[in-house]
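Human: Can I borrow your eye for a moment on a structure tokenisation matter? Separate attempts, laid side by side, tell us more than any discussion would. Could you pick a protein and write out its sequence and tokenised fold? No explanation is needed for now; the record alone will do.

Assistant:
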Amino acid sequence: MVDQQKEKVLITGVTGYIASQVTSYFLNDGGFDIRGTVRDPSNAEKLAPLKKAFGEENFAKIEFARADLLDAESIDKAVSGCKYVVHCASPLPTK
């Protein structure tokens, strides 16, 4: 049997409420590789609620990409290799 490669979906702002619900949908579907954008993928405190909500096994299925919606280059890198994008994030102006 041929192992079919899953298509990759990018979910922006994966730690936000709506994006986390979308991520849950894709995890439950099981037919996609998931990449989620965050400002800092090394921030364990920010990712902890996702780990708790999804459980260790599902959390490990998510690839986290550093991205800033106001930085086109970071978004280009995050989108690279993805067939689909579910855009849930919104930049929060500081000025």
